[in-house]
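Figure 3 (text version): structure tokens given as input.
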């Protein structure tokens, strides 16, 4: 699975460079904040491999990180293994917020930040991404 995730990151970054995007954010939610998210909106799981119900993946041109809470620390460590994702443990001292982390990354790169929604059915391994 790690090889697939790393390929997806590579493909996403190709699109990001073409569209002049500095970062993409993949939340766990759908536009309606539904309690149970349909597969169609599971972009964070698709891009990271992490299948917990709470978390946010952020991808820049050079880094990738996933924020989740203590319920999922062990599962996330296992599911992110051998990918380039860095696990960010929410509410643990020293863990940057997404904004802080992006601010650090943004000082090195220029480009727009984009909130990304992926169409799960369209996100096959052919590298098609739907950016809003």
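Below: residues designed for each position.
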């Amino acid at each position: 699975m790690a090889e697939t995730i790393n390929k997806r990151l590579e493909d996403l970054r190709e699109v990001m460079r073409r569209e002049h995007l500095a970062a993409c954010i993949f939340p766990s939610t759908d536009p309606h904040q539904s309690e149970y998210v349909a597969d169609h909106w599971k972009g964070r799981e698709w891009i990271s491999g992490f299948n917990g119900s709470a978390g946010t993946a952020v991808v820049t041109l050079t880094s990738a990180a996933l924020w989740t809470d203590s319920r999922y620390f062990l599962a996330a460590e296992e599911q992110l293994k051998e990918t380039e994702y860095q696990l960010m443990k929410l509410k643990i001292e020293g863990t940057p917020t997404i904004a802080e982390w992006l601010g650090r990354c943004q000082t090195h790169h220029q480009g727009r930040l984009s909130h990304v929604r992926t169409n799960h059915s369209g996100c096959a391994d052919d590298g098609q991404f739907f950016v809003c």
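The beta strands are 21-26, 56-60, 64-68, 85-89, 112-115.
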